[in-house]
Amino acid sequence: MFYGAVVWDPWLIVAQIVCIQCLYYLTLGVFLTILVGTRVSRLSLVYFFDFATITASTVTGWCVIASMLLTSVAGAGYMLYLIERAKKCLDFSATLYIIHLCICIIYGGLPSSITWWVVNGTGLAVMALLGEYLCIRRELREIPISRYRADV
């Protein structure tokens, strides 16, 4: 990808937001199934969107916290392939977590748990910073140039 004159394409941005959001929730579902699904009788949307499930007072709550943080690490990897630019990682991470906040407000009301805010703020920071780091590493790689003569 060449990084010269970039044409503003709103449909591409919307498609990237939708893809990142869908991948985030799919990955969160996988981690919740692995970590929380073995501990509870029935896994439901409560673990995705209700702030009361993110608690440090139970083992299940710690599993939900771990799922959220592991999902943010995976989200940084998704941004490496979908967003590809370090300077856009914070924007897309913040957008993802703002949409998540809106869904949580619709589902269960404004989160009043400090643990919810700390976990989601940490997830936002991890996703943005790790995504930027990974994208910068990719952008700074040497461009391989094949040589036609080996004795030059």
Q: Could you explain how this protein is built, in words?
A:
The longest helix is centred in the first third of the chain and has 26 residues, at 10-35. It is elongated and about 65 Å long. 66% of the residues lie in helices and 0% in strands. It is mostly helical and 152 residues long. It has helices spanning 10-35, 46-49, 59-82, 89-108, 114-139. The chain is built from five helices and no strands. It has a domain at 43-137. It is a multi-pass membrane protein. This is Protein SYS1 homolog. InterPro entries: Integral_membrane_SYS1-rel.
Q: What can be said about this structure in brief?
A:
InterPro entries: Integral_membrane_SYS1-rel. With 152 residues, this protein is an all-alpha fold.
Name the shape in a single word: elongated
Helix-strand sequence: HHHHH
Query: What quaternary form is this?
Result: single chain
Structural class: mainly alpha
Separation of termini? 29 Å
Largest sheet: none
**Low confidence ranges:** none
Radius of gyration: 19 Å
The share of residues in helices is 55-70%
Number of helices: 5
**Mean pLDDT figure:** 91
Q: Tell me what portion of residues adopts beta-strand conformation.
A: under 5%
Q: What's the total number of strands?
A: 0
Helices, strands, pairings?
Layout: H1 10-35, H2 46-49, H3 59-82, H4 89-108, H5 114-139
Helix pairs in contact: 1-3, 1-4, 3-5, 4-5
Summarize this structure as a short list of keywords or feature phrases:
mainly alpha, 5 helices
